[in-house]
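Hi P.,

Sorry for the delay on this. The queue was packed all week, but I finally got your sequence through. Input first:
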Amino acid sequence: MASPSSRQSSSLPWPPNPPPSYRPTLIAAMAASAGISVGSLGPWATVVWFTINGLDAGWFGVTALTAGVFAAALLALLLLWSRTTLAPRWSVPLTWLAAVLGVGCLAMSLPFLIRVMTSPRTDFFGVPIGPGVGWGLWLLTLSSAVLAATATVLATQIATSVDLLAPIGQSESAGTQSWRWTAIIISALIVLASIVYFATNWTYDAEADDDSSGPLPSVPSFSLPSFPDFTTPSFPDLGTTPRPTTTTTTSFAYQALPQAVVGGTCRAGSTPTIDFDGVEVTCARVSQTDWTVWSRIPGVVPRPESPNGDDAAAAICVQQTGASLAVCANALEAFTYLGDGRNPP
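Then the structure:
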């Protein structure tokens, strides 16, 4: 006859004679796993009317989503354990694994939360405006903490039941304790790795040349769009005035630069130039696309929510220059300068 430590009766619930808090704790852990999955898909930051979702952060959002789904599967298996043929002792490491996943998600989401909350603000009519924390990042962080705590409680309760089911003269304490210390050590290594990683990748040089085909920076920079002075922009009257052949010079009076329109398509790697206001613009990449446009914001430009490319270009122009939509649309229609960089493939 098989020992109770290797086989359990399908007629008995698992774990046998659980404490009153076992089932509510298990349900809370499953809800936290679902919260991690939903939070990884939701908005992590909002900048004015732009939204940055979890999956926009590259592998961070994908990792959080995968961990949430995997933890939910482990806890669902634990809920239905009495209907399986698995030995009771294996429920201990699987529950500790769910706790480790919670610690990993917390070690990843908490630095992001701090980064967004401490991002610099831009003064707008005397009111500081900056990136705000999205509900997805709040949900991910709180759910990760709940999962780590509830899964730890569950693993401790189940380990006690496994010890009680051991045959007389035998003990499972050594095995359950080894899984406990393994989970503690792995969690500590994850936290240490997170501290080292974010400490070395906390800042992002927005002035560095942007590669339109490269990945997002390892720690996304939630930079604000620049708010111009509310004066009449110096866009030409494209209906009556021909396109000027001379340009406004920058501080280097000896060098006349070609003029570009903010939001207009540019060749990646082009030399920075100026727009019609005389403000320097660079060839920047629009987030989540290979599209490069002239922009007053170097690096990566948040992608506007527009139905087509023309409206998106005009939205970028309006947002960065303060000009009207009609002025931006006319300027983009007459725009010809693409820069001196490489042609798109």
